[in-house]
Specification:
Helix content: 10-25%
Oligomer: single chain
Number of domains: 3
Number of strands: 17
Largest sheet: 7 strands, mixed
Bound molecules: S-adenosylmethionine
Order of helices and strands: EHEEEEEHEEEEHEHEHEHEHEHEE
Length: 303
């Protein structure tokens, strides 16, 4: 694209030295080409600096930065109610079908958010693929976050083949379905009927026959599940403490509980855990939540 830009006019012999200096000082306009004319070069700069002249240049069209958003399958989720930003996001990739604005934080017993459709298809449902596993999700009706995909893979990598796993707060089944790859059986419960309906669909879509979904309150799982677990997943970060006793009842001695929590320092739960038969606890930072709080996972080995 031909356009007028601020340039420094220098003799060719001074060209490379000047270009380097401008680059170092952050003044070189990298979207435009240096223009040779006779013995001189016109070096584009980002603003009207001393000695600059306005000159014709060849420049790449400016790329507008997209506003911040989180992607889940074909849905982009924005933190701002910004219609023009939403339109830019929708146009930026063919696979996006909807842009949502998250009107609330996660809330209520089902840990869902309220959404407003900013542009695209009028839906909060989408399809999502994670490490070859297919998930149907509906963000307004059942919790889902793609941000824990690394954690799911970490736990899978820790597992031995044939383990029995219990996922106490399974949602639409991302942990359960991922861990089913190595487990002999995964018991996966959730109290949200719509999450369980999606989980059943996801189990079927991934052709799994070793995940047992249940519409259940986690507090009752020790009375429902017939044998001790080698591994228990507790992903209810703000409210999992009342369920720790149930988790310890279900896990075998030497088995592991992965307890996700929202904390302001990594050792926050360590005192609470002293009340249980714990052989070893390791905490790991998972991701940030707010300036003073972050998600942590405690890998707890039962004594
Ligand atoms: N593990 C899933 C994931 O990673 O996507 C879902 C995690 S979400 C933070 C917590 C889930 O716990 C929600 O689906 C919610 O419905 C469920 N839940 C809340 N209270 C529960 C309870 N008492 N018993 C069983 N599930 C519960």
């Amino acid at each position: 694209m031909q356009t007028k830009r601020w340039c420094l006019q220098v003799h060719r012999s001074e060209g490379e030295k000047t270009r380097k200096r401008l680059l170092e000082e952050g003044l070189l306009d990298r979207l435009c080409r240096i223009r040779p004319e006779g013995d001189f070069l016109f070096i584009p700069v980002v603003r009207n600096i001393e000695g600059a002249v306005c000159h014709e240049c060849t420049c790449a069209p400016e790329k507008k930065e997209l506003p911040r958003f989180e992607q889940v399958g074909g849905i982009a989720i924005m933190q701002e109610d910004d219609l023009s930003g939403a339109a830019a996001i929708l146009a930026s990739k063919k696979t996006y079908h909807t842009v949502l604005f998250a009107e609330s934080a996660v809330e209520g017993p089902f840990r869902t958010k309220k959404f407003k459709v900013l542009t695209g298809r009028d839906t909060t449902a989408t399809e999502y693929i994670e490490y070859g596993h297919h998930f149907s999700i509906d963000l307004a009706h059942a919790y889902f976050s793609a941000r824990l995909s690394g954690e799911r893979q970490r736990i899978l990598s820790l597992m031995q083949k044939g383990e029995r796993v219990t996922d106490m707060f399974a949602g639409v089944g991302p942990f359960a379905i991922t861990l089913a790859e190595k487990a002999s059986v995964v018991y996966a419960g959730d109290i949200n009927p719509e999450a369980v309906i999606l989980m059943v669909r996801n189990i079927t879509r991934n052709h799994l026959t070793n995940v047992v979904p249940s519409l259940s309150d986690a507090i009752n799982l020790p009375d429902i599940i017939p044998h001790p677990a080698d591994r228990v997943i507790m992903n209810l970060p703000l409210h999992s403490l009342p369920f720790l006793e149930a988790a310890f009842r279900m896990v075998r001695p030497g088995g592991i509980i992965h307890l996700y929590a929202l904390v302001s320092h990594e050792d926050e739960y360590v005192d609470t855990l002293r009340a249980f038969r714990v052989e070893k606890v390791e905490s790991r930072y998972v991701r940030s939540y707010s300036p003073d709080r972050f998600h942590v996972v405690y890998d707890i080995v039962r004594g």
